[in-house]
């Protein structure tokens, strides 16, 4: 499938994977409609690109009215939508024992409900174009991660929703898929919410050793071109998903130990 002149809607495109996806799609000749909460940052990221192929909007995907307005604005400008990439997302890093429940609600609102709202309002256009709905999920959507209860729950919910929707739409010509990147260099660990809902403002990982957002985006675009069902991107991710089905207790221990090794791991509380 060629993306030339197709209309691709991407949420959360001012940074990381969303920004790299938008740049990748612009290189294919697609028209891209992008949103984020911070419009200045979004505009700054795309200042060098052809305005005729771009639509930049403020939208907070956790707000239904913003999603409706975003979709309607794209349709008013270009008349159709060929793909919606539900990429906007946030993470967390805190023990469930200590986390303010508002943090979990917030992550569900962005990562899960944001996807539901976008799909609801874009679906008539996607059915018409026989287009693609994509969820940018995570390995955390297959395997619960410690100190990420709200994040994992939101990605499991996203995948369950998309799998149901895919099955509903099986004979319509529209396609539903999700992709699960492994650790990818981006801003997500800096903005991850603490127990009280503030940004962590630091990453526990060596970001320069992770998959680049550009490589991740390239793989997503290829998967969309091939209309794949799901993509689990890294060897570590594939192993986690596969072994978790076969020997889940072993994976509990492996995952615990991996996250215990992080600098300032919240899990240290339970090691005393
Ligand atoms: N990086 C990884 O290691 C990794 C691994 C697996 C999956 N993922 C998934 O990949 C997706 C993209 O994350 P990233 O790593 O590229 O993170 P990122 O660099 O932090 O980018 C997140 C983007 O989403 C936007 N955003 C956040 N909340 C939003 C909201 N409520 N409404 C609209 N836009 C919002 C941000 O802009 P504003 O703050 O201006 O809104 C930003 O443009 C997420 O769904 C994440 O779960 C990432």
Structure, described:
This protein has helices spanning 16-27, 39-45, 64-78, 101-129, 149-168, 188-191, 213-225, 235-246, 248-260, and strands at 7-11, 31-36, 54-58, 83-86, 132-136, 175-180, 230-232. It is an alpha/beta fold and 272 residues long. It has a 7-stranded parallel sheet with strand order 3-2-1-4-5-6-7, sandwiched between helices. Strand 1 (7-11), helix 1 and strand 2 form a beta-alpha-beta unit. Helix 4 (101-129) runs parallel beside helix 5 and helix 8 crosses helix 9 (248-260). The termini are far apart. The structure holds NADP nicotinamide-adenine-dinucleotide phosphate. NADP nicotinamide-adenine-dinucleotide phosphate is lined by residues 11-18, 35-38, 41, 59-62, 87-90, 110, 136, 138, 181, 183-184, 186-188, 191. NADP nicotinamide-adenine-dinucleotide phosphate binds at residues 11-18, 35-38, 41, 59-62, 87-90, 110, 136, 138, 181, 183-184, 186-188, 191.
Q: Which fold does the CATH topology refer to?
A: Rossmann fold
By CATH, the superfamily comes out as: NAD(P)-binding Rossmann-like Domain
Poorly predicted runs are none
Care to count the β-strands?
Answer: 7
Give the name of the CATH architecture: 3-Layer(aba) Sandwich
Give the biggest beta sheet.
Answer: 7 strands, parallel
Spell out which ligands are present. Answer: NADP nicotinamide-adenine-dinucleotide phosphate
Strand order of the largest sheet: 3-2-1-4-5-6-7
Q: Radius of gyration from the CA trace?
A: 18 Å
Helix run count: 9
Strand content: 5-15%
Query: Alpha-carbon distance between the termini?
Result: 55 Å
Arithmetic mean pLDDT: 96
The string of secondary-structure elements, in order, is EHEHEHEHEHEHHEHH
Q: Given this structure, which CATH class is correct?
A: Alpha Beta
Structural category is: alpha/beta
The helical percent reads 40-55%
| Shape by Cα distribution | globular
């Amino acid at each position: 499938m060629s993306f030339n002149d197709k209309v691709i809607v991407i949420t959360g495109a001012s940074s990381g994977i969303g920004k790299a996806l938008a740049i990748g799609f612009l290189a294919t000749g697609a028209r891209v409609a992008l949103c984020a909460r911070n419009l200045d940052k979004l505009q700054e990221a795309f200042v060098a690109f052809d305005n005729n192929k771009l639509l930049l909007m403020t939208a907070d995907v956790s707000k239904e009215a913003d999603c409706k307005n975003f979709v309607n604005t794209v349709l008013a400008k270009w008349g159709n939508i060929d793909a919606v990439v539900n990429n906007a997302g946030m993470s967390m890093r805190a023990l469930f024992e200590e986390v303010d429940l508002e943090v979990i609600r917030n992550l569900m609102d962005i990562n899960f409900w944001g996807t539901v709202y976008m799909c609801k309002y874009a679906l008539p256009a996607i059915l018409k174009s026989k287009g693609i709905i994509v969820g940018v999920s995570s390995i955390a959507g297959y395997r619960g991660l410690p100190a990420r209860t709200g994040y994992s729950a939101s990605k499991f919910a996203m995948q369950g929703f998309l799998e149901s929707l895919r099955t509903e739409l099986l004979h319509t010509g529209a396609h539903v898929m999700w992709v699960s990147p492994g650790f990818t260099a981006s801003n997500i660990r800096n903005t991850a919410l603490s127990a009280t809902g503030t940004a962590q403002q630091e990453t526990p990982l060596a970001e320069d050793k992770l998959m680049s957002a550009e490589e991740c985006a390239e793989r997503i675009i290829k998967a969309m071109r091939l209309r794949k069902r799901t993509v689990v991107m890294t060897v570590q991710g594939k192993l986690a998903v596969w072994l978790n089905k076969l020997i889940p207790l072993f994976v509990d221990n492996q995952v615990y130990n991996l996250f215990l090794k992080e600098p300032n791991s919240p899990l240290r509380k339970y090691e005393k």
